[in-house]
Structures are given as structure tokens and as C-alpha cells.
Amino acid sequence: MTAFRVSVHITPRRGILDPQGKAVEGALHSLGFAGVKEVHVGRYIVVETDAETQNAAEAEVKAMCERLLANPVIEDFEIESVAAR
Amino acid sequence: MTAFRVSVHITPRRGILDPQGKAVEGALHSLGFAGVKEVHVGRYIVVETDAETQNAAEAEVKAMCERLLANPVIEDFEIESVAAR
Question: Which of the residues A61, A78, B5, B53 has an alpha carbon 20 to 30 A from that of B32?
């Protein structure tokens, strides 16, 4: 078994309302950041897990996203990186 | 002016209690993911902004993090990528 560090991006699906992103966008405009066109707010999750291989670690974290970490109705997830520790 | 897409990771500082991460860790164990050693939950923010250069876009988003997006007392931020659109 090797320890892997897997990081995941979970983002609101395209076309789904992102009220948090809109709120941040408004706040940035109020602070004077006039160039801001759009903001999306998602989650960044880092999981440290033991697995036999890098592929196994990635598959396991994918299963975690599907079962717990992401809401597939409104969110997309993407494994950003998988690294042995 | 060019449109840039800048993405940022905001994570709880090392050594600061991460109750959300601990809760997710416990839930993953309950679901049978026994290999999970540690989980950290942060935010992933994508800002689309107009700027003269890539460096200017990065500096602007860094200022946004310092003034609004991250809480410097308990969070670290890191510019993940800056890309022209």
C-alpha cells in the first residue's frame, strides 16, 4: 500500500445558477475590481488515502465523489492531481 | 485588454482545525473507504477578468484574495492557473 494525495475540484454545473459566484462578483465590483466578468465558486477537496496503485487511488476518489463529495444533479467534479506521498 | 481566467485554491492553514475535513473523513470511513487518512476541504474559485497582461491579471486576483476571497487569519490561498481566454 502506498499513500496518495488526490485533489479534486467540484464546481457548479454549467448553466446551473451559481448564487455564491454571483454574490462574490457583486462584492468584487463594489470593491472596485471593475474588470471582473464572472466568478464561479466551487470546492477543492484533498484526500489522503492508501491504495495499491495510482490508478486505484484515482478510481477510489472518483467513487467517493459519486457517493458523497459531489452532488451529481448540480455539480461536476474533476480529479485535479494524484501524487504518491 | 484581454480576458483571463484565473483559478485559485483557498485552503485552511496547516495546523488550523478543519472541522469540515474531519466530518468528511468520518463520513468516508462510514461508507467503507477505510484507506482514507486525512481530508481537507477548501474552496476553488474561478475569476474571469479583463487585464492588460497575464501578470496584471494574476496580481489583481491576488489582491481580490487578500481583500475579500480568503480569510488570511485561517486560510491560505494559491493561484492555480492564469490563462487567456
Answer: A78
